Amino acid sequence: MDKKEYKEFSDRKSPSSTILKDCLMAFLFGGAICTFGQLLFALYEPLGLGKEFTGSAVSVTLIFLGVLLTGLNIYPKLAKYAGAGTIVPITGFANSVAAPSIEARTEGFVLGVGAKLFTIAGPVIVYGIGASFLAGIWYFIRTL
């Protein structure tokens, strides 16, 4: 098989690109999740929590809903359809923590759930803490 034949064979077997559709779905679903978060903010703010605690309440609510929908097997189905739009918001982070622990529950709480809990989210947390530490040192040195 020469290069031309291989290219033709590869083109026939490769799935067609749906990047435009995928980008549009990610934009719409990610935007819908963020809009829902803003709606929650507008609902919580009149309760007199203050902006800081209102933001925390919205984050906790979105994390709870992300974990709940993951546990009910709704979030993974939504993610198949919505793509990256469900990964980027805080709900995606909640899903990335909950999903491995749900899958490992048959192995027990320590060696299953405890060991697998941060399989996906762990590196994000480690690099986030490391970057925050370095930024804090840089800020401290800069203010001297």
Offer a concise description of the structure:
This protein is mostly helical. It has helices spanning 3-13, 19-44, 50-71, 75-82, 90-103, 109-116, 121-143. The protein has one domain (3-103).
Question: What is the topological layout?
Answer:
Layout: H1 3-13, H2 19-44, H3 50-71, H4 75-82, H5 90-103, H6 109-116, H7 121-143
Structure, described:
The radius of gyration is 21 Å and the shape is extended. With 144 residues, it is mostly helical. The protein starts with a helix and ends with a helix. The chain is built from 7 helices and no strands. 15% of the residues are buried. The chain has one domain (3-103). Helix content is 78%, strand content 0%.
Main beta sheet: strand number and arrangement? Answer: none
Return the structural class. mainly alpha
Strand content: under 5%
* pLDDT averaged over residues: 85
**Net shape:** extended
Helix content: over 70%
Question: Which structural traits does this protein have?
Answer:
144 residues, mainly alpha, extended
